[in-house]
Amino acid sequence: MNKHSYDDLWKNAWGDMQRVGPVHRHTLDNLVRRISTLDVRRVLDVGCGSGENLAALAAQHRYELTGMDISEAALALARSRVGSARLFAADITKETLPDRFDMIISVQVVEHLLDDMAALRNIAEMASGYVLVSTMQGRMRPSEIKIGHVRNYSAVELQRKLEAVGLEVMEVTGWGFPFYSPLYRTLVERLPGGPPAGPVGRAGEIGARLLYHLYRFNWPNRGDVLTVLARRPS
Fold this sequence. Notes:
Blueprint: H1 3-20, H2 22-36, E1 42-46, H3 52-58, E2 64-69, H4 72-81, E3 86-89, E4 101-107, H5 116-126, E5 127-136, H6 142-146, H7 155-164, E6 168-175, H8 179-187, H9 202-214, E7 225-231
Helix pairs in contact: 1-4, 2-9
């Protein structure tokens, strides 16, 4: 998918779901909790989208925040959310920033990239400390292809790719079993039009909130949301 395709997705499909979607909320909760345990200050969000991750980290009042994304539409949303962050329009498969960062995060991005190895090399080049990549594993559903996924990973594949660009993997975790994956991921494909997208009304917010609380009962460290924490070796 090209830059304009992602602009369209951010304008018409993804904005509200980044804010209220139960999977996004749990991923964000886990992200903030994990980063808080590490000695980091300068944080880069690669594929920062509408700035939800950056806004949550800004609320901690302890980080210098930077975001980059290929989509100008996403960055416009991020600027309205996180005025304190530096934001750059850039393609991670082709470009790096001149700075180095204590922590680089990339959430639900690499599965969209044809050349994921180029992206991971560029991420590793900008990292002076930690790298956290969150993506999807397991069987790819039709709705994922529709929004630009080109692959779903296995834990072993992502670990080996991070190691191939010179990073040392510290931990590999899954999330979502059983209520999100496979139950919700499978059942929602049967809805007309697939998973919910676009503006979320009051009923949608209530449904998302109920799912968020249901997902608290997922089993620890199992499921299709795959997160790998790595670091640049000393």
